[in-house]
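Forum: Protein Structure Q&A
Topic: Joint prediction for protein chains with partners

I've read a bunch of threads here and the consensus seems to be that you should model interacting components together rather than docking separate models afterwards. I'd like to see that in practice. Below is the full input, 794 residues plus whatever partners are listed. Could one of the regulars post the assembled result?
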Amino acid sequence: MQSFPLEGITVLDFGQVYNGPYCGFLLAQAGARVIKVESLIGETLRGRGMAASSAYPFASLNANKESITLNIKSAQAQQLIKDLAAQVDVVLENFAPGTMARYGIGADVLRAINPALIYASSTGYGNAPGPYRDFLGMDFTLQAMAGVMSITGEEGGPPLKTAAAFADFLAGTHLYAGIVSALFGREKTGEGATVDISMQDCVVPTLSTALGSYYVAGEQQPRAGNRHPGKALAPYNVYPAADGYVAIICIREGHWRNLCTAMDNTEARSDPRFATMADRSANMDDVDELVGSWTQGRSRAEILQITQQHGVICSPVNDLADVLDDPHLAARGTLEKRRHAAFGEISQFRTPLRFTDIEPMALRDAPALGEATDTVLQELLGLDEDTLAALHRAEAI
Amino acid sequence: MQSFPLEGITVLDFGQVYNGPYCGFLLAQAGARVIKVESLIGETLRGRGMAASSAYPFASLNANKESITLNIKSAQAQQLIKDLAAQVDVVLENFAPGTMARYGIGADVLRAINPALIYASSTGYGNAPGPYRDFLGMDFTLQAMAGVMSITGEEGGPPLKTAAAFADFLAGTHLYAGIVSALFGREKTGEGATVDISMQDCVVPTLSTALGSYYVAGEQQPRAGNRHPGKALAPYNVYPAADGYVAIICIREGHWRNLCTAMDNTEARSDPRFATMADRSANMDDVDELVGSWTQGRSRAEILQITQQHGVICSPVNDLADVLDDPHLAARGTLEKRRHAAFGEISQFRTPLRFTDIEPMALRDAPALGEATDTVLQELLGLDEDTLAALHRAEAI
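Posted by a regular:
Agreed with the consensus. Here's the joint model:
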């Protein structure tokens, strides 16, 4: 592959917050031209009514995009969107269910104008008929609805969310996957498609381990903290280190033997309590005490070095500063240090979609609100300056 | 779109456990022919040395595939893989780093044989140079390395994993996305590609909210349980219900007003402690007490009904049985009830990649180990029965 795979593709990205914008980010970093369409005051994450902490995700997820502003409640802007849909390959959005249709610019209307168009949306529960279709959804409530919270948390404690917004990002990745699948299918047929991604659908497969334990036991197992959901693997836990914590997991007998060697503990290797995975699982507290007593006097770096030398699956529990300065993420070109107006130097991520033949695309700053409105409408629709001025006056753009 | 987008594409799927097999599952359900390649004793998840609980994920992730067995340590099988690589569009694998190359069937070798081939791999840390490239990685340790554990957990408690294996599934989805992007790019150039997905890369963007709070405060914020990582939104928590818990989040002032109406609490709406998002965040304990006192006497279903009627973002905290019987997942055709040899009736998921013009593909049972070995090698390589018998005797297949 000598060039970015989506070169020549043009996208109208109505995304907001994480799900849609991450999809647009992946598209842009894969070579597509991504035109971010915002309301006249900017999308939700740009700042209005949101915490200052939204500035970092906004900057990251909207790199390599152009920004135009359109008031989709205005009939003039709705006509512009129809005209733009005739010129582009993809329209993507993650509004509340039915928003685009309510303004007369839904999938059916736009695909009738441009039969080759890929119209792609992602909502909490998808657009197919069903009792939750019109429910509002956020990452936080999807983690609740899709069962993730029920299996996460301390032993004996309440259900707990994960603080990583993975439902949003998983849905955004599926949205990208659906769009590119449809683009590939279109090569043969010339026909567009409507992509319908439900965040709930995307989260369900991540329950696989817990569902396996559920079906074996015939009922849900108690929350297990950092241990295996079915208490069927040991060692499998987070252990104290001198400067924090480490995560260690042994999924095969060989891993356990390797860990005993790494700990320089021949007694443990011949201890009948620890002979097989089933024995170790039955004596999990003893296993955890043994491993923890070895880790607690050592630094995370030392533990990582020793375990990796011995073929044990281990990682330090890194905090955010560790991740931002991670030498591997820097070496791979995944994180790029850049200037941000409010924060000074920040680390921004590039696309995880990597091809060995080409360098990952350099990041460009997220666009200022509407900075490309006039140029895009001139270029794609041939609007002249008088028309643009009238549209501005009417607050359609 | 009148047909599945990947019809006509053939894939050799060397995936094991979740990451690679989920990618293969998405490919199969998008219309590709997916030939699962296993060792003579089957891949890790098929059962050897793993807990009984692996049967459910194995059945789910390998639906709609064919299975062939090849001993990749055998020179004869290595030649067969080279011959097969000349006939297929995609090879995917998620072995430990460098495994395929060690057996002489790495990306460079196979792409030299078939310049149109897409060779796609996913490992914990990717194949590009870097200090962690050769580290073993599992979902559990990637959650540790990529910072997710450090931000998840109870206030004052230790770092905690999420029990949903989201790092694996997020990487598998990116692997699919990379493959289909390369297939699309190949339409123009005829040239294949090497896709290099790092689980670590895929997880980093999910930290966006926490990184936003980090940059605002200049340091990592304490773990926040079910609250907002930056304590900048309220209500935002899991609240007790009469029969479990519910998750409620208000991200705009309107949501709070709606919630006050839903709770029939006009006093709260005019209470100066709760006037703005900043006020509510500063008085988070009071907000949570107020909301919790309303939820705790009501069932999850009643709370869901009232909040949805009033435009409040809310979800019950569902357990696994709730998810498996979820009426919306059934209505969308996302979960299909099927017979499983060991468990009786189970609910299996179909692909989240959905297109409104076509029904999602019906599930076919995961294949028995090696059931298609002979037929695939006959069909794709023209091997005769004597040759196949000799390969079986030599334990190459």
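Residues 236-317 of chain A form a domain with the formyl-coa transferase, domain 3 fold (CATH 3.30.1540.10).
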